[in-house]
Amino acid sequence: MAKAARVKKSKSARKLHSRNVVQRKNTSLPMSVFDNVMKQFDAAARKLKLDKSLLEFIKVPRRSTIVKLPVRMDDGSYKMFTGYRVQHSIARGPAKGGVRFHPDVSLDEVQALAAWMTWKCAVVNIPFGGGKGGIICDPQKMSEGELERLTRRYVADLIDIFGPDNDIPAPDVGTGPKVMSWFMDTYSMKDYHAVPSVVTGKPITLGGSLGRSEATGRGVMLSVREAAKYLKLDLTKATGSVQGFGNVGSVSAYLLQDLGVKFTHVSDVTGAIYNPDGIDIYALVKHVAETKSVLGFPGARKVRPNDVLYAKVDILIPAALENQITATNAHRVRAKIVAEGANGPTTPEADTILNKNGVLVIPDILCNAGGVTVSYFEWVQNRIGYFWSEEEVNRRLEEKMVAAFHDVLRTSKENRTSLRIGAFMLAITRVIEVVHLRGIYS
Ligand code: NAD
Hints:
With 442 residues, the chain is of the alpha/beta class. It has a domain at 215-367: 3-Layer(aba) Sandwich (Rossmann fold), CATH 3.40.50.720. The protein is built from 15 helices and 15 strands. It has helices spanning 3-16, 33-48, 52-59, 107-123, 144-157, 177-191, 212-231, 247-258, 281-291, 307-310, 348-356, 364-367, 370-384, 390-414, 419-438; strands at 22-23, 30-31, 63-72, 78-89, 95-96, 99-102, 130-136, 167-168, 239-243, 262-268, 271-274, 301-303, 315-318, 337-339, 360-362. The strands form 4 sheets. Strands 12-11-10-9-13-14-15 form a 7-stranded mixed β-sheet, sandwiched between helices. The protein has a 4-stranded mixed β-sheet with strand order 3-4-7-6. A two-stranded antiparallel sheet has the order 1-2. The protein is globular, with a radius of gyration of 21 Å. It binds nicotinamide-adenine-dinucleotide. The site of nicotinamide-adenine-dinucleotide has 22 residues, from α8 and β10.
């Protein structure tokens, strides 16, 4: 390929994958998020020494659907959107996973997120497989009416795929309880009665679960608490840094602050702030609700966004996007614990560097599994038609997260490997066990 064409191709590839793909070191080839999950799977599979054809069967997505969605815009024109739904696994139960509305959504990203859902559900031992969906769109630039029509058209086109026993979506980046309400309503038209259990993350009055909005952050807090006990790190003397101050980042930070952790660095998409004496996370939540930015928070000064990743703190929580800690910057991470609130914030190459440097990485498929765990509780409550108190939900979540943390820790120790590979080994073993019993229909 001519040099000019090569440069042009790599530029357009960069643009296309600006968020979920980073460049490979020393090459112009983009590195996909899906490649990252496959590498993580392969590293664990090699240690398990299982039947290769069975591993191949559970490794790749079972079904990936692409839909083209015509939507009437407010100005009367029609615009075509592209939507995806991927069912990575339905071996242990219905496919489970969120729907993302974002301009950078791609099939590669949705497949990766669907695969992580399979392994996450198996790590916390809930009877779900893995799925994920997404629509390429910019919800910030769409009216509520346009978003509602887009959501309803997406559900209508995929109505035979979804269902409480088949595939159960939830919110992800760019979607929330309102989108889930439209989702549930559109699906319910099919059977002419309300079907709340077809989605989770609904408003409480529509059958949502108490504790769901804080569940992912609570799971991060519980994972960090268990990791700190293991490392004999006193949380009342610990410091922290958080990248991304949305649902996961803010809740993780205030619950850890409740345990005594002092957060010195916080960032969001608008920038990063620093205060060596500690940032009051509850006050920052209020500030962000009012100003839509962490910047300008009294007592803190503005720093470079990446200072948050390189801060000399005990606990770093990446809670924004994929591919943030890579081969090029992993050596600059100085935290003792990296708690992955986001999905896929660390590339496999960066993982190797962090492990070599003695950083304990609590992998996403364990660390942020609190959200899907309470989604499972929501589904259970919808099906039994009886709702638990918030204390009950939090108690059950703690039980699941603590058990999962120690299952992963034990597997990692027994196999002398990282928590990530331990988590994958545990999850793969649990999925394979079911596949063995069910057999493969061919
Ligand atoms: P969110 O939209 O509520 O928050 C995202 C935050 O990241 C925002 O504060 C945004 O400003 C910030 N951000 C975006 N780009 C950034 C950048 N370049 N640098 C710093 N900050 C940036 O989303 P969320 O629900 O908190 O999800 C965050 C991550 O956690 C995603 O990877 C998501 O898949 C994962 N996750 C979420 C849940 C859940 O229940 N919400 C569960 C599991 C995993």
